[in-house]
Amino acid sequence: MQDGEEDLYLGDVFTEPPRPPTPPPTFATCTRNAFPDLKIRLVGSHPLWAHHLWNAALAFASYIDSNPKIARDRCVLELGAGGGLPGLVAAQNGAKKVVLTDYPEAVLIDNLEFNARQNLAPDEQDHVETQGYMWGHPVDSIMRALPKDASTGFHLIILSDLIFNHSQHDALLKSCDMCLASRSANDDTSIAPCVLVFYSHHRPHLADRDLDFFRKAQGGGWVCEEIVTRKYPPMFPEDPGEEEVRATVHGWRMTRGDTGDFPH
């Protein structure tokens, strides 16, 4: 044994390098016509991409503001809410109940609660609840948040830029199926219980895999139709793939019904 080897401390060899500090939160503003702007706090960094205000969320906000009857006096659930913008807009448009959910991690749920406090009037906050939830898991806690007169489920479920998570398509559809309210004989087709799915093809070469979500939905008896397309500056300008594809937000409505042909 060479001199000094007996002094070698294994802790010096296997010590983990110091981790960089978590970046501070950032803020993004949603500019609106009929309502005051919303200032959305975003977590500083997160592997689930909750640190971005996605174009799909901006398109959602605009769509709900332009079509307030889809939220007014109705129960709204947002899955994978991130900063919670669409759900907050639904609350400001008179939703009876809004449940904002994201992965059950304190930093994400605390951030949703912050955004509700900072952007909603006290009476609107009374109609909003935040919960941690993993897609595809039991929904007992979510369903308990419903008012007693709406116990069959949510009239509107919001999926904002989630379907790029291809491995989670089945779980998302399962959650939607468990949470959506049953259709009433009195429902107008334009406001029947529905899932709204807004997204962009962030990776154009995987666009067909994004659309698998709707094929799977149709196979499970959902009726799917595209109702919105809007152009925004691309989220990540330097990313590969056709910029126009990455800059386009698509909005689809899913309702329960007979399986139809996949819309092209």
Q: Mean pLDDT, nearest integer?
A: 88
Number of helices: 9
The coarse overall form would be globular
| Estimated radius of gyration | 21 Å
Which structural category do the helix and sheet elements fall into? alpha/beta
Give me the strand/helix succession: HEEHEHEHHEHEHEHEHE
Question: What order do the strands of the largest sheet run in, or round the barrel if closed?
Answer: 5-4-3-6-7-9-8
Describe the structure.
This protein is an alpha/beta fold and 264 residues long. Helices cover 29% and strands 21% of the residues. The protein contains 9 helices and 9 strands. The chain has helices spanning 10-14, 55-66, 85-92, 106-119, 122-125, 140-144, 169-179, 207-219, 243-247, and strands at residues 26-30, 38-42, 75-79, 97-102, 128-132, 156-160, 194-199, 222-231, 248-256. It has a 7-stranded mixed sheet, with helices on both faces. The chain has a two-stranded antiparallel ribbon with strand order 1-2. Helix 2 (55-66) runs parallel beside helix 3 (85-92). It is globular and about 50 Å long. The chain starts with 9 loop residues before the first helix and ends in an 8-residue tail after the last strand.
In short:
By secondary structure, the protein is of the alpha/beta class. The chain contains 9 helices and 9 strands. Strands 5-4-3-6-7-9-8 form a 7-stranded mixed sheet, sandwiched between helices. The protein has a two-stranded antiparallel sheet with strand order 1-2.
